[in-house]
Design brief:
Arc Repressor Mutant, subunit A, single chain, 12 helices, mainly alpha, 265 residues
């Protein structure tokens, strides 16, 4: 196995392609064809989605490594920590500025580690008020996903405060705790040890039952389209939130098992 991720030049190339795709998407939404024809913008948009997918899959090894690192120091398992770390990776891909001159992995580690550490902290919440606090944080997270999906942007603290009848400051505190809410106990990870294995994941995805495959595609933006919150993905597929979570857990478990079997072969 190799420790090599994307080369620096590949990172910049993919980041530029993602940026161009986002710009094309914005122009298409405004029907603004002053820069390029509609078909050219559509192609740039598709190329951007492909670049996003390649960037994401080629860096999953970072998530796995940090999940292992944190799991060794706490009572959490790698399976419990991976999903939040993967979302941290997606955050990093969205936020990384390739013009700053540093490697993506250097930047991504902080986002992944923060997500993983917050997830591990959920298992150590204790005390007479902790159960109620976790329940409230879970409620805010659920409302956050619903409202953000409806608005097609991240909801503000003030907007969420109106929904729950609390102050914006209180909502802000609960949102900081959102990622501390315990994960589903059977959530598992897809393990990639080489960037070339991004293609292997796509091959294995095709072997999943249809609904599990679609859940993974919608949740993580694989195969085209933006990554969706669980609530938005459930609505898009006509599933309840709890059903989507079960399918997501099963799909990730299958993928990780298959990848481990291939590596051991």
């Amino acid at each position: 196995m190799t420790d090599t991720l994307l080369e620096a030049a590949d990172e910049v190339r993919l980041a530029r392609t993602i940026e161009a795709g986002l710009f094309a998407t914005e122009l298409l939404s405004r029907a603004d064809f002053s820069f390029a024809r509609a078909d050219e913008l559509t192609q740039l948009q598709a190329d951007g989605l492909d670049a996003w997918q390649q960037f994401l899959l080629s860096n999953v090894r970072l998530v796995q490594a940090l999940a292992f690192q944190v799991a060794r120091r706490c009572d959490s398992t790698v399976d419990e920590l991976f999903q939040e770390g993967f979302l941290g990776l997606a955050d990093a891909v969205q936020r990384w500025d390739f013009r700053a001159g540093y490697r993506f992995s250097t930047y991504a580690v902080q986002w992944i580690r923060r997500r993983v550490l917050n997830a591990s902290a959920s298992l150590s919440v204790s005390g007479p008020g902790s159960a109620r606090t976790v329940q409230r944080a879970r409620l805010v997270r659920s409302l956050d996903e619903q409202l953000s999906a409806r608005l097609q942007r991240v909801a503000t603290d003030a907007e969420l405060a109106e929904q729950v009848g609390r102050s914006a400051d209180w909502v802000g505190r609960m949102r900081q705790l959102q990622s501390w809410v315990p994960l589903e106990p059977d959530l598992v990870a897809v393990e990639l040890d080489e960037p070339q294995q991004g293609g292997e994941v796509l091959r294995l995805l095709a072997s999943l039952p249809w609904v599990e495959r679609e859940v993974v595609r919608r949740r993580f933006g694989i195969g085209g389209g933006a990554a969706l919150h669980q609530r938005a993905a459930a609505e898009a597929l006509g599933l309840s939130l709890s059903t989507l979570r079960r399918h997501e857990a099963r799909a990730l478990r299958r993928l990780r098992t298959w990848l481990q079997d291939d590596l051991a072969a």
